[in-house]
Amino acid sequence: MQASKRISTILGGGSDGWEVFLRAREMIDGGTPVTELTIGEHDIRTAAPILQDMHRSALGGHTGYAAVPGTAELRDAIAKRVTERTGVPTKRENVMITPGGQAALFAAHTAVIDPGDTALYLDPYYATYPGTLRGASATPLAIQAHASNAFQPRAADIAAVAKGAKSLLVNSPNNPTGVVYSRETLESIADVCKEHDLWLISDEVYDTQIWEGEHISPRALDGMAERTLVIGSMSKSHAMTGSRIGWVIGPEAMIEHLINLATHTTYGVAGFIQDAALFALVQGDDFEVEIAEPFRRRRELAQNVLAQQNVVGVVPNGGAMYMMLDVSATGLSGQDFAFALLEKHHIAVMPGESFGTAAAGHVRVAMTIEDGAFEEALKTLCSFAKGLAEKA
After folding, report:
1. CA 124, CA 122: separation in Å to the nearest integer?
2. Which residue of 48, 248, 318, 352 has the fewest C-beta atoms within 10 A of its own C-beta?
3. pTM of the entire structure?
């Protein structure tokens, strides 16, 4: 007996990009301390008041089947939040709650893709994107955003392959680069979507982590609300990664279809987790700023360290909890550099190649450890790169 092609081909016959991360975890399990700058996991845990509210809700009996689309109160709160932040009128009927942003990505593509349809996405990309598209029975097609253009995607590159495609997936602020797409970039992408009748799926889970520029939801652009599905999550904005709660926002008719999909797949999200998410959202903007502040602070630390050397280049990161560093001066690929850094100094970073081909020769650094340790690790990385470059 064999697994279905949909499941057995999720990785596309290649790597899933997690080799350095897995090697670091092997070292840790073997007793070797490793400084991990790999995954986007807050170094703080979910705030105690959120957990207390979750506990209160569970003890209060909200442990049975919850409404599949999400509780009315949570959907209303998210709709209000989106309306206020984007200016796009949004109602409960435009929102469906999902078990995290990853489930929202899968559901959104399943909603717009027929088997074999081409689904476009941008390279560099979050590591799960290609597999998510294959899992939704799509034919994934990556479009490179180039380091020479600060990883801002070019509309002409998208238009060149858009004919016959069904959807385009974008992510701003971007993981892995930290780039925030400009209004000009997003408007040009919107024009391509309208010209080629593409669904735009916009992953906006880092919308509260903006260091420079502004976050613009493509759904707010002219003529885009009816063809855009927005992915949101409590993971990054409220440090609720393990709670697995996210959402899809879109046209009412599409949300109705997504509710049907959820009824036959996830059957919703636990009520006590939804109640905790509602409690967290009600804490307002100040709480979200508090969650984001460590990454703003560490970005400044990193900029100071990087300014004192000339070997490691940095991609201007206007948002998110990551920095993309150019280590090509060492003569190594991003993957070889990452493995060498791990073995020599027990510092784990993600190779740029884990996120596609456009970031080859780069590494992604997650700003997710205590300030002093982060600064010291970055100094060691730069010193290591300098030594390699002198030998190259």
Report:
1. 6
2. 48
3. 0.96
